[in-house]
Amino acid sequence: MAGQILTVVELTADNVEDVLAVAPSSEQLRHVNPVAWYVARSAYQQVWHPVGLATADGEVVGFAEWAYDDSDGTYNLGGIVIDHRHQGRGLGRAALDALVAHLRGRPVPGDIALTVHADNERARGLYERYGFTATGEVMEGELVMVLGRS
Ligand SMILES: CC(C)(COP(=O)(O)OP(=O)(O)OC[C@H]1O[C@@H](n2cnc3c(N)ncnc32)[C@H](O)[C@@H]1OP(=O)(O)O)[C@@H](O)C(=O)NCCC(=O)NCCS
Questions:
Q1: Under DSSP, is residue 39 helix (H, G, I), strand (E, B) or coil?
Q2: Confidence of residue 148 (pLDDT cuts 50, 70, 90)
Q3: Is residue 1 included in any domain, yes or no?
Q4: Fewer beta carbons under 10 A from the terminal one: N or C of the chain?
Q5: pLDDT tens readout for residues 30-55
Q6: Would residue 80 count as lying in a domain?
């Protein structure tokens, strides 16, 4: 489905409960942690930045986190989840549009990478069709993919 637009939103006192309500299906929890896991980790390890993904009318329908690795100048994306009640409508692709624009708008330029389980066909297919390419590396059991520059 084309034409879906999402916006990256920072977590605030007002939206944090909506962000924490974003959930994959129980079957998908073998591919990602619960959103609360990422949010809690970010509070104690100042590495990953958690963000919400909101529709034009402000509804939070997704979650992701990003981190900048200054050892190789790469932005890493992780924990990408579209709430299971909203999946299959093109929001996964819209989430990538929003996240890539968000990272490319940061003052320090860098490549964009993520990791995905080899058997997560839905996510892997989405990333491949979007332009991510497997580097051949495997990190903690997941395939490393990098977004080619257009
Ligand atoms: C992966 C995820 C973010 C994609 O979100 P989504 O709302 O399903 O995404 P879309 O509707 O944009 O669909 C993405 C693609 O998957 C395809 N697709 C839809 N349902 C599918 C299914 N059951 N199996 C395989 N592909 C499927 C769509 O045709 C679409 O193809 P396109 O890239 O050519 O447009 C979402 O499924 C999710 O949150 N999964 C659980 C968490 C997860 O695994 N995250 C990734 C961690 S690396």
A1: helix
A2: confident
A3: no
A4: C
A5: 999 999 999 999 999 999 999 999 99
A6: yes
Using CA atoms, how far residue 7 sits from 29, 43, 58, 63, 116, in Å, is 24, 22, 9, 11, 23
Instruction: Quote the domain boundaries for residue 141.
Output: 7-147
Minimum CA distance residue for ligand 1 atom 5: 92
Work out which ligand 1 atom sits closest to the CA atom of 86.
7
* End-to-end Cα, the chain, rounded Å: 22
In a domain, residue 98? The reply is yes
Q: Which residues line ligand 1 (CB under 6 A)?
A: 24, 28, 31-32, 80-82, 87-93, 116, 120-123, 125-126, 129
* Domains of the chain: total: 1
**CATH number of 101's domain:** 3.40.630.30
Confidence band, pLDDT 50/70/90 cuts, at residue 150: low
